[in-house]
Prior knowledge:
By secondary structure, the protein is α/β, with parallel strands linked by helices. Helices cover 39% and strands 16% of the residues. It is globular, with a radius of gyration of 25 Å.
Amino acid sequence: MITNQNPTPDTNLTDGMHVVVDALKKNGIDTIYGVVGIPVTDLARHAQEEGIRYIGFRHEQSAGYAAAATGFLTKKPGILLTVSAPGFLNGLTALANATTNGFPMIQISGSSDRAIIDLQQGDYEELDQMNIAKPFAKASYRINRPEDIATGLARAIRAAVSGRPGGVYLDLTTALLASVIDKDVADKTLFAPIDPSPASIPSPASIDRALKLLAGAKTPLVILGKGAAYAQADDAIKELIEKTGVPYIPMSMAKGLLPDDHPQCAASARGFVLENADVVVLLGARLNWLLSHGKGKHWNPNVQFVQLDIDAMEFDSNRPIAAPVAGDIVSSVDALLAGLATTPFKATDEWTKAVNDAKIPNDEKMKVKLSNTDMPMDFFSALNAVKGVMDNHKDVYLVNEGANTLDDTRNVINLYQPRHRLDCGTWGVMGVGMGFAIGAAITSGKSVVAIEGDSAFGFDGMEIETICRFKLPVTVVILNNGGIYNDAHIDLSGHGDPSPTTLMPNAHYEKMIEGFGGTPYYATTPAELSKALEAGIASKKPTLICVEINPQCGTESGHIGNLNPKVISNK
């Protein structure tokens, strides 16, 4: 598409939109997620024409979550394409979530005329998008000239993947997309950045300090975070843990980095190991709210921390870090392994036995929960049926969101391969499910199971049309207890309205996917659920299973009810 010119046949002109696509191809971008409209529709068309896969969504936020999932799984920035103003804002939540979680992602948005925006003269979808994005992104850039397109994209890619990964915003004005440039001149500007995410080598002193602290530990513990999973240092991390014999607990998106049934996994003794560990290695994990900030009754008050993180600003954020190791996870773990030759450490038999003994009563309690035969099903009996199927399909990706659905699935469903679990992460965002499922399916080409609470599914349920349109191997399992948390609440209005947390316990969500050509199931028993899930995975076709569970089951806010303030009733 060439605009604003009447070229003669002997001219060799191109426009900004074509140069953007050429720059994306030069950088190996093979997939774009988004929602098209003014001024980026032709950009998506031309990208598709040039061999870049375009995955069109029903809402920009879900498309952004798919891009973020791609970033997490590949260590390359996932690309979100949005229209100006409202579409940009719809994608911004996903961009902010990517930054918070450390996922590389670039949101590319068209924007309106700068001259009119800057004078606030009321242009179509007028918004100063670049500056609005800055607080929510790792970096925010605007490209104004076609000769700068390759440089702008290179800066965005480097910002997204270097250091702690994150979301980057890239603003393409309407004028830029329509601008004309000689194609030979444009081609000479194209390049891909060399080594956009260079290794960050930890200092020998920091490695020596960490090893000496661990060598003196009596009750050491490793906590694996999603940063460790992202790093793809799988073999080295496994070697470090097994060579030292130290128990470990995985944060939710680090599940599967080592198999959840590994003998050193102390997940079912989490409380015991946190209360008794004297030295804790934070390996790609942060002392945020998910770990009670490293404080309080859940922690040994005398614990000392070794923290491996690429961002030195993360150290001492909540507790003093006795042995900070600033560097990328690959280089840092390799250095620790090398240092074991001169400063070895190993968990004692006494500590290993104590951890294993602490697992036993909790494992028995879980067995009792999973064996519940009451009808309707509760979360645990439903998830026990899911577990039996998932254990037979260890390569299936798991997406998970909700409150009780999230918490209980994390505790019940084992993962056996790294980066096979995607969930609502550090922010606890609802509505990531369908976007993450689509991103995982597109990126991996493998089957995905998304286990959803009925409330969480409502945020992005329309994307099942996207799943069906692209014929993706995604099976959605909705655990429907009829409410946000549950349906065990009363009407306080006096007008017959549902309570603030009430949804529809008898909803048939499976009818939605039937309308788009997918396969529907409705399950009321564990046997029905197991059969439907097995069939959905085996078919490799879009499937939705609506699971009827007891509306009374589920607790307020799941496992984090302490964060939900209680007020004194006036009645």
